[in-house]
Specification:
single chain; about 300 residues; alpha/beta; Muramoyl-pentapeptide Carboxypeptidase, domain 1; Lysozyme-like; 2 domains; 13 strands
Length: about 300
């Protein structure tokens, strides 16, 4: 490959080598070999032309359209599996026992974590939960839940069977959710536009893509369910001396790096890692309105 070809492939899809050919339907998209750099660009153009989320990755929806079929997403159920037992919930879930599930087979500790102290919210910087799953697999990472653009929750692992790798040194005391959001305005889906938001983390006023209303609703319901099924209290962190406002930066206690200064509750990835900014500040108001308290840390 030439340097120009490699640049083309990695700009459209950083994991193109692992994933481009996985779901390819044939020359309805491209006559190029799936391991070529230009294939990613052909997939991207096909997605743009056909009103799909354009990321250059030939996932199930793109593959169905290329095969002149209608994509049928998983129907989902209303339960989450804990130790193989279905625990009811009031939102749609694709659990590990369903067709279309996104289940991690590597990238996690085999010993379970049943009593977490934190539920960590992430955004995935991807265009779908399927894409997020592929990226995490490629990086040998995992997460308990992925929440797609339509609010569907994918259960990535039964918490009774392993500890996911999603949030650094709090992995062993936390569950997490990757909420689908490609973040940058250039990834706005013109056929299903997201609201525009402001970053606000550490004072950053950059304009970013927000969350769809159905995602916000599902996040709130998932957070309540997780807290009710575990020992995690329904609370959000505020900086000491600033009550009533969720803290918008990294929270470090003395000698307690990565452990959010002893806080227990629902927090952001940026609260426990100074290099992160996800999931922004947009979700907290909905959680507060649903009954979450704000506690000073």
């Amino acid at each position: 490959m030439t340097p120009e070809q490699l640049e083309c492939a990695t700009q459209r899809n950083p994991y193109w080598q692992q994933r481009l050919g996985d779901q390819w339907a044939g020359d309805a998209i491209s006559a190029l070999a799936v391991d070529s750099a230009e294939f990613a660009e052909d997939v991207y153009v096909f997605q743009e032309t056909n009103g799909l989320g354009a990321d250059g990755i030939c996932g199930p929806e793109t593959n169905a359209r290329a095969a002149y079929k209608e994509y049928q997403p998983p129907a989902g159920t209303e339960y989450i599996l804990i130790n193989d037992r279905p625990i009811p919930c009031d939102f749609r879930v694709v659990s590990p026992d369903e067709a279309g599930a996104l289940v991690f087979t590597k990238g996690y500790y085999s010993d379970p974590l049943l009593n977490p102290a934190l539920f960590v919210l992430h955004w995935d910087a991807a265009t779908s939960s399927r894409s997020c799953y592929d990226i995490l697999c490629a990086r040998n990472l995992s997460v308990q839940f992925m929440l797609d653009t339509d609010g569907m929750v994918y259960q990535g692992l039964d918490p009774a069977k392993g500890t996911c790798l999603h949030a650094g040194q709090v992995n062993r005391r936390s569950w997490g959710v990757e909420i689908c959001n490609p973040v940058y305005l250039k990834y706005q889906n013109k056929n299903h536009p997201r609201p525009i938001s402001t970053m606000q983390v550490r004072g950053d006023k950059s304009q970013i893509l927000g969350f769809y209303p159905e995602q916000v609703e599902a996040v709130v319901k998932l957070c309540h369910w997780v807290c009710e099924q575990t020992s995690i209290p329904k609370q959000l962190p505020a900086k000491k001396g600033q009550p009533g406002k969720v803290y918008n930066s990294y929270i470090q206690g003395p000698g307690d790096k990565w452990l959010v200064n002893g806080f227990t509750g629902v927090c952001a990835h940026f609260h426990q890692n100074d290099d992160k900014c996800d999931p922004g500040m947009e979700l907290w108001d909905a959680l507060i309105a649903s009954g979450f308290a704000i506690v000073e840390v």
